[in-house]
Specification:
209 residues, mainly alpha, 6 helices
Length: 209
Amino acid sequence: QHSSNSVDADSHSHHRQTIAVRKANAFTITFIVLVGLVANSFGVFVFVQHRFRDHSSSVFLLFLCLSDALFLLVHFIEDTTRTFLDIYFFNSHSSSSSTNTEGFFFSLLNVLSVTDHSNVACRLVNFLRYYLRLLSAYLIFALTVQRTVALRFSAYRQAVESSHAVWRAVVAQLLAGAVLNLWVPFTFRLIPVVSGSPTNSSSSSTVYY
């Protein structure tokens, strides 16, 4: 009996530590998302200004800010909302005992967590997650190559800094990223699972893989 109680206590302690870590992670990610959205929004505002339009690098940086901001939103919808739902609602108490404020946040998070309710949203959000992550890397690489050529090979500077060349490079990257990630919508789908806890084993949600 003593051994069984000890195991239960250790299991409960481990569960509380896990929840604490997930809470810290969820709030940290939310803070990063908010800061990133503000910073990238400011970047978009700067690079669309008329005085920056003549700089070829501004086009790459503008699309980089847009892709990073959208990626942060996608990550929040795809991962962080589910974490909040799981640790504060599915693993804490039933919705019938929640307050009006808690009910509001539950409804809000449940709406934001679109990937748990629709196969179309599940596939689309995952496509965007892979696509935007790859696109950011492409844009940084293209910007690095363009600036290297412009600075080290002056004979090609005008060619690589021309507006047409820059826009062609950006459009090519947008299309290449989409083509390379066409497999994603055919890989991810909704799978119903039971997400229970010692206090609410009947709670259920839907996740995708």
